[in-house]
């Protein structure tokens, strides 16, 4: 799946979540609230990484790790969409910047 397809899939799920949130809470989550959810997901991811490093016991560790990484990617895609960031271009530019910096350190 290409990044554009991932972004569209993330948008569709976000739209469905927005409908659910409106029914449940009377409004959909703001980007700030999505960010707070992302922070929670990153915390969950950190615990799973500890599991991979052998310092936390977790049942179905690999499946949970894959799920949490996907959750985090979803949040990044939705936040980028919310703030009109071309994440594909930003990624390319950032990697080029990092490579230039690393080249200068040799």
UniProtKB/TrEMBL annotation:
The keyword Ribosomal protein does not apply. GO terms for molecular function: hydrolase activity. Residues 30-96 form the NTP pyrophosphohydrolase MazG-like domain. Pfam families: MazG. Keywords: Hydrolase. InterPro entries: MazG-like_dom (IPR004518). This is Nucleotide pyrophosphohydrolase. It comes from Microlunatus elymi.
């Amino acid at each position: 799946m290409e990044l554009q397809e991932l972004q569209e899939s993330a948008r569709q799920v976000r739209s469905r979540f927005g409908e659910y949130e409106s029914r449940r809470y009377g409004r959909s989550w703001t980007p700030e609230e999505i960010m707070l959810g992302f922070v929670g997901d990153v915390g969950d991811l950190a615990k799973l990484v500890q599991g991979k490093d052998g310092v936390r016991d977790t049942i179905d560790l690999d499946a949970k790790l894959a799920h949490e990484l996907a959750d985090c990617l979803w949040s990044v895609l939705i936040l980028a969409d919310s703030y009109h960031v071309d994440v594909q271009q930003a990624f390319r530019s950032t990697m080029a910047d990092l490579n230039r910096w690393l080249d200068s350190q040799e």
